[in-house]
Design goal:
Number of helices: 8
Shape: globular
Strand content: under 5%
Structural class: mainly alpha
Distance between the termini: 63 Å
Radius of gyration: 18 Å
Oligomer: single chain
Length: about 230
């Protein structure tokens, strides 16, 4: 249903933040990948990120159509978008490495992009009033709002990843950024569901967890290969 955003400023703000999150992630990814082939100032990476992210975000819609679930709401899926981009980032980094290019840099770019996009996306959740914790946070996060914990965590990760890139360690940036985002998403799903879901599941975090884990494993593998002494 179309929304008259002129008379609903909060809905307009939420929509702008969510669309801005997608655009920010794509722009950051393209900018950091600009030195990598095929060149063209990173435009192929911009277009590819947007296409894969939007395709993945429609996962729930495609599933609902396939199952003929006409009576159920089918919101855009951040989990599906993250899973899709993580799988493609892992595959693309391997292809670049096989071509003699810097596959780790692509994964570092993805690490920055996915964490940067998550901040405005979670701010949008605050304004929309969604994505609250169902089960309260524990430990040193006890009593905190899950969404603020995710925003603060993402901002902290971005600072650490930026520092790693500044000192010329894209490998560390990729491992830290992807690993931390995986942990943040686990925290989110673990407390927004009445019961934890399996690691591999078509409902929510399962595919996202696998995709991010694969991208993280690829970052570690490429770092081990490139740092190994020549025979």
């Amino acid at each position: 249903m179309l929304v008259d955003t002129a008379h609903d400023p909060r809905t307009a703000l939420v929509s702008a933040l969510r669309l801005g999150a997608i655009g920010l992630g794509a722009a950051v990814f393209a900018g950091l990948c600009a030195p990598l082939p095929p060149g063209f100032a990173g435009l192929p990476y911009l277009a590819g990120y947007l296409a894969i992210f939007l395709l993945g975000s429609g996962f729930r819609v495609f599933r609902a159509v396939a199952r003929n679930e006409a009576d159920r709401p089918t919101p855009a899926s951040w989990s599906g978008a993250t899973a899709a981009t993580a799988f493609v980032a892992a595959a693309a980094s391997l292809v670049l490495a096989l071509l003699g290019a810097d596959g780790v840099r692509l994964l570092a770019a993805y690490a920055v992009a996915i964490n940067a996009a998550y901040v405005p996306a979670k701010v949008a959740c605050l304004f929309a009033g969604c994505c609250r914790e169902v089960r309260p946070l524990t430990g040193w996060l006890a009593g905190a709002d899950l969404r603020w914990a995710e925003i603060g965590g993402s901002a902290t990760v971005l600072l650490a990843v930026g520092l790693a890139l500044t000192v010329g360690r894209p490998d560390l940036a990729a491992i830290l950024g992807i690993g931390a985002h995986l942990a943040l998403r686990r925290l989110s799903h673990g407390h927004r569901q009445p019961r934890p879901r399996p690691f591999v599941s078509l409902k929510g975090f399962g595919l996202e967890s696998v995709g991010l884990s694969l991208a993280l494993a690829m970052a570690v593998l490429l770092e081990l290969v490139t740092s190994a002494p020549a025979a």
